[in-house]
Each structure stands twice: as C-alpha cells, then as structure tokens.
Amino acid sequence: MTIEDSASPLSAIAVDRGAGTLLAALGVAAFSFTFPATVWALDGFGPFTATGVRGLLAGLLAAVCLCLGRVPVPGRQHWPGLLTVAGGCVIGFPLLTTLALRTSTTAHSAVVIGMLPLATATVAAALTGRRPSRAFWTAAVLGALTVAAFTLQQSHGLPTLGDAYLFCALLVCAAGYAQGGRLASHMPGWQVIAWGVVAALPVSALVTALALPWEPVHLTTRAAVGMAYLAAVSQFGGFVVWYRGMAAIGVLKASQIQLAQPLITLVWSVLLMGEQLSPLAAVTVLIVLGCIAATQRARER
Questions:
Q1: Cα separation values, 295 from 249, 257, 290, Å
Q2: Which of 181-190, 273-282, 287-296 has the lowest mean pLDDT?
Q3: pLDDT of 16-45, one tens digit each?
Q4: Rounded to an integer, what distance in angstroms lies between the CA atom of residue 198 and that of residue 196?
C-alpha cells in the first residue's frame, strides 16, 4: 500500500452494493461469536485482564500488518474518529460487555446487540446530517424492539447491574461504529480498525500490566481459544469486512444488518453453552428479516 493509494481512497476501496452487503453480513457473522468467546476467555482470564490482553494481541497483529503494508500514518483530521473507534470498540465495549458477562448469560447479554443497530443509525444520522425515510426508522425501531423483547423473554431477565454495563457498552460501541464507518469512506476499512487498535495499545498494555497481579491467568483450552478468537476476529478481522461493507452501502443501512447478530448469538448459546431457545424464535427471525429487508430498500429523504 503506497501513500498514493491511501490518498485516493474512494477509488481504492470502491465496492458494489451487493458485495458491500455481503461484507457487512460477514462482519455480523464474525461478531456473533464474540459473547460466547468472551465467556470462554473468562474461564482463564479476569475481566480486566481479558480486555487488556485482547486489545494488546489485536494491536500487535495490526501493527505488523501496517508495517508490512508500509501504510502511512493517517492525517491529523482522521485521528478524532480513530480515537473514537479505539475508545468505543477496542476499550469500552470489550470491557463493559466482559463485566456484564460475569453475571449475565449470553442470551440475556445479546439484548445490547438488539438495540445497537438503532443506536448506530441514530449516531450516524447525527454525524452525517443524512435523513433516512420514515420507513427506515419504522423498520429499525420495530426490529430493535423485536430483538430486545425476544432476548429478554428468552433469558427471563430483569434489569440488573449487568444491564447497566450493557447499556453503556451500547452507547460507546455505536459511536465507534458510526465513526469507523465514516472513516472507511476515506481509507480502507482494515486500516481504520488497524489504526484504532494500535492507538489503543498504550491503554491495552497498561490495563494488562495492572490487572495481571490481581487477576492471575489460569490458562485452559477454552480460555486460549476464546482469547484467540477475540483478538484475531472480534477485535480485528471482523472489523475489516464490517467497515468495508459500511463504506460500500452506508453506515445507516449496514447497521441494520446487525439486527440478525443477537439471533445468531442465541444459536451459538444453544449449540455451545447449553442454553434453550423459545418457540418464538422462528417468529422473531421472520420479523427481523423483514425489518432488515425494509431498511435496505428504504430511501433517504
């Protein structure tokens, strides 16, 4: 990757809308295993250690990719957005959801993902000034409420401290998604998340160094596999296709594809965690798929 390549991002990262939708869907599929992988990681790591090590490993991987690609440092105008990605997607969301998963099931925690598409669309609309149609907002709200109602019914959950963590995670992640999607229109998506995790490296290293004496690591196979997935896929690889898809079809429409994520997470929770699905799952899937289709076809005002 040369400086000239990065200086002409629109031509370098052009992707047709069909491919963009597929890339965003692949990102959602990658993220869907994040909560189960976090539960596995907590088998051997404390919550702060897991967050620090996850960011540290992802940052080192990204630094190697940036060096091998000889990627120039982004311009000053891009760093506020990159720091938002670092704070929201690399530090804030992983830490808050890890704290929540100490007491909440993966099914119950999936409720935060059910509301994340709506929050991301709201932040993106505020940042860009774009005005989706009423049909878009109606479908987005209906999809979010459907997923939230199903996941809460599925886990029989009442509001807890874990829900407070999840709500805060929702806010910081929405900001990181919206800013990352915006930046992916100016630089390749993999560079957006790569610079984000590299920017967070000092914090990740500090958190790891401070947490290790208080949260000794008891490495197990499950913990190692979970941590490897979190660092390589949830924190880096998944964002590469996610941000590229966002750049192709827009943050607003890409965000609504994520309505499917908690449903996929629930499938993982059944297959790997022994949790049970409600008979309402099929109805929920149909409603959510309808809402996703409606948001993809909606026009801006």
A1: 12, 9, 9
A2: 273-282
A3: 778 888 999 999 999 989 988 998 999 999
A4: 5
